[in-house]
Amino acid sequence: MPGYSQDELEISVHNHQITISGKASDEKNESEDEKEGVKWLHQGISKNGFSVNFSLEHRITIQQATLDKGLLTLQFIYEIPEQEKPQKIPIGVQNESGCVLEHNAA
Questions:
Q1: Which domains can be identified in the chain, with CATH numbers?
Q2: 3-class SS at 15?
Q3: How far apart are CA 94 and CA 102, in angstroms?
Q4: Which SS3 state, helix, strand or coil, does residue 23 take?
Q5: Of 14, 19, 15, the residue nearest 65 (C-alpha)
Q6: What is the tens place of the pLDDT at every residue in 3-43?
Q7: pLDDT in tens, 35-51
Q8: Is the dihedral of CA 36, 40, 41, 44 positive or negative?
Q9: How many CA atoms lie within 13 A of 93 on its CB side?
Q10: Is 13 exposed, middle or buried, given 0-12, 13-18 or 19+ CB atoms closer than 10 A?
Q11: The overall pTM is greater than 0.70
């Protein structure tokens, strides 16, 4: 987000949609620049308002956002419920008499 300050950016989450929007602060308009004798040959980054949306999976929770030298970083947690995590199933051994010998966890 080069050129935008923390006050000009907004992040919101609603119904698993994250919206990042930015608005330009009240800057000098062209007529004020002309009064001061400033003439732009090229202005690299246009500072217009913007809004961008991303879909989030229902398990994602945004923890924090930071803006450092124009780089916006979002930190999130991906939460997996216990019932959806992989589980190890112990394997028993059957002896010659047909009894199942259980494996003892060490």
A1: 6-80 (2.60.40.790)
A2: coil
A3: 9
A4: coil
A5: 19
A6: 788 999 999 999 999 999 998 765 545 556 666 777 777 76
A7: 677 777 776 666 788 99
A8: positive
A9: 4
A10: middle
A11: no
- Residue 40 to residue 62: CA distance in whole angstroms: 40
Helical (H) or strand (E) element with 42: none
Q: How many CB atoms lie within 10 A of CB 37?
A: 6
Q: Give the residue among 49, 63, 58, 48 at the shortest CA–CA distance from 10.
A: 49
Give 20's strand partners: 11, 52
Length, in residues, of the chain? 106
- For residue 73, the cross-strand partners are 66
